[in-house]
Amino acid sequence: SQQGEEDPQALSIQEGENATMNCSYKTSINNLQWYRQNSGRGLVHLILIRSNEREKHSGRLRVTLDTSKKSSSLLITASRAADTASYFCATAPNNAGNMLTFGGGTRLMVKP
Amino acid sequence: DAEITQSPRHKITETGRQVTLACHQTWNHNNMFWYRQDLGHGLRLIHYSYGVQDTNKGEVSDGYSVSRSNTEDLPLTLESAASSQTSVYFCASSESERGYTGELFFGEGSRLTVL
After folding, report:
1. Which of A14, A53, B19, B45 is geometrically suited to a Cys-Cys bond with B58, CB 3.0 to 4.6 A?
2. Which chain A residues are within 8 Å of B59, Cβ to Cβ?
3. How many C-beta atoms surround the C-beta of residue A54 within 10 A?
4. Are A90 and B41 within 8 A, CB to CB?
5. Residues B86, B112 contacting (CB under 8 angstroms)
6. pLDDT of A75-97, one tens digit each?
7. Is the CB of residue A87 less than 8 Å from the CB of residue A106?
8. Distance (Å) from the C-alpha of residue A8 to the closest C-alpha of chain B?
9. φ, ψ (nearest 5 deg) of residue A107
10. Which tens digits make up the pLDDT trace of B21-50?
11. How high does pLDDT run on average in chain B?
12. pLDDT interval class at A1 (50, 70, 90)
């Protein structure tokens, strides 16, 4: 079963708009990570937020974490056509060693 | 530059055959993982290893095996391939962090078709 569930499953926006993706999870976590996957390629790490952090920024990415609601959001500001990809959240449950559990992903399409 | 490579990138095989997918990383990471990716299921963990001679079962390990004889390699073997094992397989590695799960570095994937 998946620890993380992304919402929405698919998102289509125009270039320049912001894209928001949400992730919900079930158990307490050590940290939560977001990954990007271009079509036919491997996943690439974007950002990691620890359980004691509430918000983190990296360039045009903003991640929030609400451990009381067991949810996270990824915001991509001023989107570009090159941001078209699938985005996955991955959770590191407490006491699960170094494993990550991935959600089903959000497919983002940014139209030029 | 350090990297993680998978081979073959594409393979077609027949039901019942043994298949081995190779994974080689030059990051010198202790942790290595195999995931499979299927539509509707995201990525699911098959097997993982925290070091040489250490292997562990993941969520969907039936029909798969791994061995870790050195730091760099974690080959994934399908003992007797089944059509349900048609999937894209990803190998990943990460550093060992004490009490902390670090970022994963992924290979480009191996697409396996079992006919």
Report:
1. B45
2. 1
3. 11
4. no
5. yes
6. 999 999 999 999 999 998 777 66
7. yes
8. 13
9. -90, 115
10. 999 999 999 999 999 999 877 899 999 999
11. 93
12. very low
DSSP, res B109: -
Rama region for A30: left / alpha / beta (φ>0; ψ in -120 to 50; rest): alpha
Strand partners, B19: B78
- Beta-sheet strands, E only, within A27-105: 29-37, 43-50, 55-58, 61-66, 71-76, 85-93, 101-102
End-to-end CA distance of chain B: 37
Measured CB to CB, residues of chain B less than 8 Å from chain A are 31, 33, 35, 40-45, 48, 50, 58-59, 90, 92, 94, 96-97, 99-109
Q: Which residue is associated with the tokens 């499953």? A: A9
Q: Do B48 and A99 touch (CB under 8 A)?
A: yes
Q: What is the residue whose two structure tokens read 């915001």?
A: A75
Q: Which A residues 38-77 touch B at CB under 8 Å?
A: 40-45, 48
Percentage, residues of chain A above pLDDT 90: 79
Instruction: Give the nearest chain B residue to A42 (CA atoms).
Output: B108
Q: Output phi, psi for A83, to 5 deg.
A: -80, -10
CB contact at 8 A, B22 and B70: no
